[in-house]
Structures are given as C-alpha cells and as structure tokens.
Amino acid sequence: MYLPPRSRRLLLAAHITVTVGALGADAALLALAVSGLRDTDPRTVYPAAYLLGRWLVAPLAVGSVLTGLALAAAGPWRPLRHGWVTVKLTLAAVLAAAALALLVPRLGHAAAAAVGSSTAGVPRGDRVVAVAAPAAALLVLGTNVVLGVFKPGRRRPAQAANSEVANAADRQR
Q1: Is 86 exposed, middle or buried (0-12, 13-18, 19+ CB in 10 A)?
Q2: Which residues of the chain have pLDDT under 50?
C-alpha cells in the first residue's frame, strides 16, 4: 500500500516532528537528571523529571514508533527489504519499551522518594537511571538520524550511473 506523495510527505513531517520532540524531551530530561546529581533540590528535580518522562518522553517515543511503522508500510522503504529501516524501527521500539517499562516507573519512584518524608532521599539506582536512560536515548536517536539521512546499503545515483557505465564498457570489450 503506497500513499500518494502529498499524504506521505505529511506523514513524514509528522514522524520527524514527533521524533525531534522526543529528542528534545530526552535532552531536557538529561539536563534535569544531571542537575539532580548535583546540588539541586531533589524535591523540585525528580517530580519535574517524572512529569516530563510520563507526559512527553513516553508518548513521543511511542508516537515515533507508530509513525515510523506507518511510513514503512506506506512508502518504498520496506523493513525486510532494507536493513537500515529494520534497525531504525527496532531501536525506536526498544526505546519506547524502555521508556514505558523502565524510565517512567523509576522516575516515579524517585519523585515519590524526593517528596516523601524519608530521610534516605532518592535512591542512587534511580538517580543513575535518570541520567543513563536519556543519555542512551539521545545516542540511539542520533544513530537513527544518521541511518535515516545516509540510508546505508543503498546505492546512490552517482554510484548506480558509474556502475552502469562500467558494465556497458565491459560488455563492449
């Protein structure tokens, strides 16, 4: 099923918007988490990080996967035919699953510990996850950007033209 070009461009714009939003939300989450490791009051940092993770990062990650699947189904880049598409979708799905299953619950736990009356404060494991998860997500999203721009394994038009000229020259010999 191919979409008409105008509809496909609209879907592509939605995908790029959602994915760039996820990238920005992860960067903001990383900034909050790093400030939480420093001297910033955890009663302000971790509840804000939890809200950002729950209401922005997780929905945008899921939206990125869904729009990516729609693009793969409606365009010329089939996941089973093009390895880079499979890698991008897999990385995006792993990020979305990690945001839903690991990041948001740990941020919720950290927020509860920060505002609670316990003297222990935010557990070290929650603070580490709050920094490591968005840092890893930024790395993976950056990898997806590179894959989407360069599309490894695909012949560029200049390469295709050069190989056709070389093949024609070989046939004439």
Answers
A1: middle
A2: 119, 159, 166, 169
